[in-house]
Structure formats: structure tokens, C-alpha cells
Amino acid sequence: MIYEIFMPALSSTMTEGKITSWVKSPGDKVKKGETVVIVESDKADMDVESFYEGYLGVIITPAGESAPVGSAIAYVAETKEEIAEAKQKAAGQASSNGSTAPQKNEEPPAKLVSSPTAASVASIPDVVVSAPRKSAPAPSGRQIVSPRAKRIAKDNGIDLAKIAGTGPNGRVTAADVEAFLQPSAQPVAAAASIPVTAPAPVAKVAAPELGKAQALTTFQKAVVNNMNQSLSVPLFRVGYTITTDALDALYKQVKTKGVTMTALLAKAVAVTLQKHPLINASYSDRGIEYKSNINVAVAVAMDDGGLITPVLKNADQTDLYSLSRDWKGLVDRARAKQLQPDEYNSGTFTISNLGMFGVDRFDAILPPGTGAILAIGGSRPQVVATKDGAIKVASQMQVNLTADHRVIYGAHAAQFLQDLAKLIETNPQSLTL
């Protein structure tokens, strides 16, 4: 019996997937539920497991290439004797498509990073996408290791028992093994919290070849698709100037406890959204969708291009210190492409902060499925006039709200920004309660 492994749909917007690496090689034994291939989805790398037991007969789509969702990317033979039949079937398919025979899969470089993520794929029965359960920790004494981490450790003769995992439920990831190989590097788990007022270190990316077009990554295509969707939405923008002296003073008090400016701003926005549920709502064919949770998404630029929005869930109900720890963990996993889908697509309101780069003001594009996004500029000293006619210096930042006019009107946006400014200017200490 010959079985097909299909390219899974790892998200609702995914039309094609790119093979990051093959964990199994042609001829290798494949067990049911065992990871066979790692696929790059819109925002992360996913472990794809086989639904069948047998032998990997032939790889149709090699590492580094893409295939449409639902197309066959490999054949699994039930017995060794049927491997030749699988190769013939693949060759016949290639001939009918007018393409060349499948290429032999090459060993992926050890520097590639994989991750255990994603939801199950109901529409494609031949694969299972692994998703570690957050609610059920691993049994005591059992170490969970990703397939890529196992391979890197084996190639370098590393005892995995010596490595502490930083993935979900303590899972050892490829990034953990690579960090172990470089003892001079600071472990991710012990890294200090980086305030949003300073840009995070950016990994060196190969310079583009001038004069030639560079194909978009799956990640970048997803961003393009989202931006195109926003073109059909009637948008309007409202700006506001907020004095940040009180917020800056609070930040100086709490930053030594690991609190970041991102967490402070997210908390302030979330608390304000409690009074303005319409700003947290979105438009749908059924009407205005009022959300039961306040999940604040924060835009993060990826080192290799593209944009992702890790989500601080229930930000209004989470204390400031936990929110900061959650944010650091989200950013670490986002950089390593280890976010679960609900950690980047469950936002109900979005913040985009370019103030850390010295930007004064800008307008943000509304993400699909939300009603508003807040663009935050940098805070800087300004000469301002007081109500009694005096002159003083105060730190101020410009914020611009981009909103869906089908849901939110100008007065709603203005009232939200007014209440946000009042909280930040007069009572930021309440954010620590």
C-alpha cells in the first residue's frame, strides 16, 4: 500500500507551504505519529507527523522548495518491497506534470531552527501537525526533545540530559542545543528583560543581491496578504498628544523588577479598553463582533523580514509583572519561530510602537479581524504652555489610532484616546495594582 503525505493547511490564509527540512530520508522507517517533515507556515515552523506506518519511499518536494496546500509532497510505502513502486508512482506523476523527477533530499544545515507548534489539520487526513499541550506538563523525569534538536545533538555528540529546555513544557528545541554549543552566548532563559525604549539586537542577515529580484518568503507573503485585505476596509485615523512624565517616572521605578515599557503601554491600553468595548470589537458579516476578552497584540519586526504580532492575552486582568514576563517569552519564541498559532492570531486590539527607533509619529495599517490599531511614537521633551499661561518642559508622545469606520466612529475613537491619555498622565500607578 502506498500512502501520500500532503502539504497541510497550517492556517486559514495559507495557500502554499515551504519545506524547511526533512527529518526522515528516503528508505527510513516511519512510525505513526512520528515527525517526518518540518514545514514553514505563515508565521512559524511546524512539525508534521505521518498518519501511517511504513517507510519513506520518495520525497516529491525537497527541502527549500514550496508546494500548494493539499498537494502530495512525499510517498510512504507500507513495506520495503513497495518503495520501488512509490518511486515509480512519483516518477509517473512528474512525467504527467511535465516536470523533472523528484530530487534527492539533502541533509538540512544544523543552523535551521524548528519548533513544535500548530493546530490539527482536519481537511488533510494523511498528516498530523504536532502541538504540545500547555495544560498537561510532561511526566516527571521525561525529557521532551524536538526532532531537529535530537539531530543536532546526535551530529555533535551532545548528551541531551545536560540541556535545559526553554520550549513549551520544558521541551528542548534546536535553539537550546545551538546555545549549548556556544557556551559564551547568554542562555535564553537567563537573558535580562530588554526595555522597549531600546531596539533589540538584530541578527545579521545576508545582504540582498542588488539589481535582482528576491522572492518573498512564506512569512512575507502572509504579511502582503493581510495588508491587501486592509485595502477593502473604510479606515479613518485620529491623533492625540499624551504627556508621559508620570509614566516615565513609574517606568524608572519598576524596570528593575523586569517590567518593560511595552507591558506598561499594553496594560494601559487594555485597562482603557474595558471602558470602550466598541474599540475592542470588529466587523463581520453577522454585524459588530464584541469580544469577550481583551487580547493586546504588539507588532514585532522579524530579523529575516516580515512582521508578527505576539498576543498578550487577557492583558486587562493580568498583573503588570506577569505581563512583562509573558511578553519576554513571546518575543523569544517569535524570534525562534516557535509561537503557537493562537499566540499570534488571537489579538483583539493591536499596538505598533516605533518610538523606540526615534520615530515621532506614523500611521499603522489595520490587521484583519480587528477594529483598531494604535501607532505609538517616541516620547521626547517638548516646550508646552500650561493652562495658566506659563511655559514648561514636558515629555510628550504622539499616538495615532487607525479604526474601521464600519464599527467605530470619530467620537468613539476620540473618547478612547482621551481616557487613555488621562490614565497615563494622571494615574499610571494604578497599572501596578
TrEMBL record:
Gene Ontology biological process terms from the UniProt entry: pyruvate decarboxylation to acetyl-CoA
Enzyme class (EC, first level): transferase
Location of region: Disordered: 86-117
PROSITE patterns found in the cross-reference section: BIOTINYL_LIPOYL, LIPOYL, PSBD
EC number: 2.3.1.-
Domain Peripheral subunit-binding (PSBD) as annotated: residue spans: 144-181
Pfam families from the UniProt entry: 2-oxoacid_dh (PF00198), Biotin_lipoyl (PF00364), E3_binding (PF02817)
UniProtKB keywords: Acyltransferase, Lipoyl, Transferase
Domain Lipoyl-binding: 2-77
Gene Ontology MF annotations: dihydrolipoyllysine-residue acetyltransferase activity
Superkingdom, taxonomy of origin: Bacteria
SUPFAM superfamilies: CoA-dependent acyltransferases, Peripheral subunit-binding domain of 2-oxo acid dehydrogenase complex, Single hybrid motif
Cofactor(s) in the UniProt record: (R)-lipoate
GO CC, one annotated term: pyruvate dehydrogenase complex
InterPro entries: 2-oxoA_DH_lipoyl-BS, 2-oxoacid_DH_actylTfrase, Biotin_lipoyl, CAT-like_dom_sf, E2/Pdx1, E3-bd_dom_sf, PSBD, Single_hybrid_motif
Family indicated by similarity: Belongs to the 2-oxoacid dehydrogenase family.
Matches recorded under PANTHER family: DIHYDROLIPOAMIDE ACETYL/SUCCINYL-TRANSFERASE-RELATED, DIHYDROLIPOYLLYSINE-RESIDUE ACETYLTRANSFERASE COMPONENT 5 OF PYRUVATE DEHYDROGENASE COMPLEX, CHLOROPLASTIC
Record's protein name: Dihydrolipoamide acetyltransferase component of pyruvate dehydrogenase complex
Annotated source species: Pseudanabaena catenata USMAC16
Lineage: Bacteria, Bacillati, Cyanobacteriota, Cyanophyceae, Pseudanabaenales
